[in-house]
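Fold in tokens:
===
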Amino acid sequence: MRRVLVLGSTGSIGTQALDIVRAHPGRFEVVGLAVGSDRTGVEAQAAEFGVEHVALGAEAAEQLVRDVEADVVLNGITGSVGLGPTLAALESGRTLALANKESLIVGADLVAAIAAPGQIVPVDSEHSAIAQALRAGAPEEVRRLVLTASGGPFRGRTRAELESVTPAQALAHPTWDMGRVVTTNSATLVNKGLEVIEAHVLFGVPYERIDVVVHPQSIVHSMVEFVDGSTIAQASPPDMRLPISLGLDWPHRLGGVGRPLDWTTAAAWTFEPLDESAFPAVALAKQVGRAGSTYPAVFNAANEQAVDAFHEGRLGFTGILDTVRRVVDRHEAPGVVTRESLAHAERWARDTADAAIAAER
């Protein structure tokens, strides 16, 4: 019986995790739940699963992680407020099933300083795929990581064609149903740039050996290329329950989590190179990732401000990355990275992005 603490329990990741727990009652026990503000939702979940320990807000969630005995902490909190609970889980020696990407984007240095080998199990589908494929060889046998990207709704368009994109078009993702920021990030490929940074932090592979390839069908979730020329790919229909289940019970696989591919039906999978002139987000993410310190936090915060401005009609689609680049170019990193310096850098990035956007109008 694995004791599970679910953070962000009423969100998409959290509710799917509880579906898995519900389907495997003899394998998991929910010992704690945390949400941002949905008191009614979390109280209903607590009643169903017999949970005594419930937290509202990120600070309370962080304390819950420190106080409650658990084998695995699933961090499905959205945003950089999830960093505190991530650090608490790592410091407490728990296995961390991590869906909160900001923990690695914003707090890479802090996380890397305290995470034990294998303590973090990624829940993002791409990083889960890589973790699964890496089991096929030793670390020194890995040549490169290949993250797949659907290409979003604007695959094949030039930069000039992207200038007239509307918010409604940006939200029409061909594969995944996500929130406004994440869906827009998938359209600009900022999301894939953030995932490259995550892959570097999680797996310790240099940026020059992490590539992105466009795979519109979203069946192959990522790949690992080995020194002997072999490439190991993880393939499955798009379904977040699979990586969530692995996060809860790594390295074991649970039966009946997702449907398999139908190999009796003809299908075609295609792979295309990334057009970095139309979609410069991945190259910029690698730049800030190499710079380290507070640069990834600035990249992420400036992008969130620019995405909001785009949806409010104050900025064009291509202006999102243009704004982020301006903010990154102006940033000066502090000497030491702390939670306080990260928070300061994020506030600076948001203010600087807002000023840059206002100046463009």
